[in-house]
Amino acid sequence: MTFIVENPLHEGLRVDAVLSMVEQGLTRSQIKQRCKAVRVNKKSVKLSHQLRLGDLIEAELVELNPPNLEPQDIDIQVLYEDDKVIVLNKPQGLVVHPGAGHHPHTLVQGLLYHHKVSQESDPLRPGIVHRLDKDTSGVIIVAKDSYTHAMLSDQFKNRRVEKLYLAILHKPRDPKSPLLTMPETEWYSVRNRIGRDPLNRKRFAVVESDSEASTGRLAVTHFRIRGGSPTSLLAQIKIETGRTHQIRVHSAFLGASVVGDTLYGAKNRDDTLMLHAYRLRITLPNETIPREFEAPIPDRFIRYMEGW
């Protein structure tokens, strides 16, 4: 594929973003999978390279051999379904889609078994608009066709989706922590940048220095405390952005890591991750008023909070 950047709206955008606009039907993640090489003005660049008007782009896209996703009879709890979407309550411990180290037994394979989605739009992640970490439970929405996938993805991209999580946090040791001093009716906001932890590639971290800020991405999280015990807090958490591990990183940043989070908190493996996607507010195709979907509070939360 070869073309010149002539649209003023494309100036300043990343190469992969413009390629996904020109090669309609491909997402940025699909561009990344299929792009063998890319050159701008005859020089090899990364897909994150920002473009200018008049730039000559040469991209070599290859066809992928779709993975053999064998449908599996996985029990899925449906919260809502119509001819465009399906809203599920993802159980803890279930991976959303195949990836590095995770090919068998995923939510996608369960959806394929029950004929809920088609592999036409994305052979590896059919219907997946957003995802939850393996050990995070809760509400997740899946598109049944390419139009719905694009429509829902646009809402996530432009932050028109409201996501509310429930988490049980370790109580901060600092008695002056805002999580301990603010009224229950108020929200405390964390707004900073998150990037890959240079000391541990499996982790992400808050990036604070000016020299590192350019490598991080803006992350905004809001916390409201709804109760607790001498050692733990029950928090409602809203996120404006959807960075990897965002809630877990910001909770640890406040000295209140999520209970059961062995990557960012205490290494007590007796506890399971106490993070649940409780509510999703989003507009469905052919509708103008957003709908709200809720996943019931899981049993592990109820058991943990007994006696509070």
Helix and strand arrangement:
Blueprint: E1 2-4, H1 15-22, H2 28-34, E2 35-40, E3 43-44, E4 56-61, E5 77-81, E6 85-90, H3 107-113, E7 137-143, H4 146-157, E8 162-170, H5 178-181, E9 188-196, E10 204-207, H6 210-213, E11 217-228, E12 232-239, H7 246-253, E13 275-282, E14 291-294, H8 299-304
Helical element count?
8
Based on the structure, what is the oligomeric state of the protein chains?
Answer: single chain
For CATH, the homologous superfamily of the largest domain is named as Pseudouridine synthase
Low-confidence stretches: 209-214
Residues in β-strands, percent: 25-35%
Q: What Rg is obtained from the alpha carbons, in whole angstroms?
A: 21 Å
Span from first to last CA?
62 Å
Helix/strand class:
alpha+beta
Described by strand count, sense and barrel closure, the largest sheet is: 10 strands, mixed
Mean pLDDT: 88
Percent in helix: 10-25%
Number of domains: 3
Secondary-structure element series: EHHEEEEEHEHEHEEHEEHEEH
* CATH architecture grouping of the largest domain: 2-Layer Sandwich
CATH domain fold name of the largest domain = Pseudouridine synthase
Question: What is the number of strand segments?
Answer: 14
What's the CATH C level of the largest domain? Alpha Beta
The coarse silhouette is globular
